Automatic annotation (TrEMBL):
It comes from Amphimedon queenslandica. Residues 106-199 form the Fibronectin type-III domain. This is Fibronectin type-III domain-containing protein. Residues 15-88 form the Ig-like domain. The lineage of its organism: Eukaryota, Metazoa, Porifera, Demospongiae, Heteroscleromorpha. It comes from the Eukaryota. InterPro entries: FN3_dom, FN3_sf, Ig-like_dom, Ig-like_dom_sf, Ig-like_fold.
Amino acid sequence: MQFSLISSRLVATPPAFILSFNVSDGPPTNVSCSVNGNGISTELSRVIVNGPGSVTRVTLTVRLREAGNYQCTVSNTRVTDGNNGDIGGVQATSTNTLLSISVSDTPTGLTATRLSTGLAHVRLSWPTVSGATGYEVYYQLSSNTPVSVGTTASTTINITSGLFRGITYTFYVVSYGSASLPSGNASVILKFSDPVVSDLMATVITTSAIILTWSPPTAVVPISYEIKRRCRRVCESSVTSNSETSVLSPHTSTGIPPYSQCAFDLIGVYGSLKVFLTTNYLANTPST
C-alpha cells in the first residue's frame, strides 16, 4: 500500500493536504489515522480503480499543520464474514501505512513596497527560508476569505492587478517544501492611500518666470511629474494655459507675462494613471 503527500492547499487555515494510497484485496470500509500517536479527523473518499473488490484508491483530506508521523490503518469490517474473510473470491484484509511529514519554516521579515507603476501596485519581499522549495502569497480584506496571488520560487513578487486604491490589505506569505506541509504565515499590512504633495512652493519669482520646488509624496513616488499652468495678467480677463511634462523639482516655469497671477497643478504619473498631487497653487509675477 502506497502512502504519500500528494498536494496541499496552502491558503487554508490550517492548510488542507491530501493523502492518497491504493488498497488491494478488498475495498476498505474503515480508515483511521493518527499523527504522533494521536487520532486525527479526516475526510475520506474511496474509488475502485481496478475492478470490484480488487484495488481501491483511498483519498484522505487532512486539515492540520503538525509535523510528525502520520499513520493510517485500513480495515474491512467484513473480515469475519464469509469463509475466513473470503467474500466473493476476494480476501478482505486489514493493514496500515506510515508517512513522516515535516512542516516548512515560517518566513520572516515580509515587507511591502508600493510601486510607481500604479496606485494599487505592490512588491512583496522576504528572506530565503532554508529548505523551502517555494512560497505562496495571498492577501485578505478584513475577515474575508484569503485570495491566493500565486506561488513562486523567488523571494520577491510584484502584484499589479486585482487590488484597489484606498483599501487596506493584509498580505501573507507561507513557505513549503517538496514533502512538507506549508508553514505558518508572515504578514504585513498596507493601505493604498492616494499620494499628496503638500509643500509645492515658489522659491524664486521674476517678471517672466517662477521657480517651483516640492518634495516627493510619502505614499508612493511617481514615475514622473507634470505641471499645468493657468495665468492671467491682473489687468486682463483672458487666461493662458500651459502644460509641461517630465519635470523635476526645482522646475522653472518660463514665458509668463509681468504682473500675472498664475495657478499651478502638480500631477504625478503612475503608469497609465495621472493623479493630481497639488491643485491651484497661486503665485504672482511682479510688474517690473
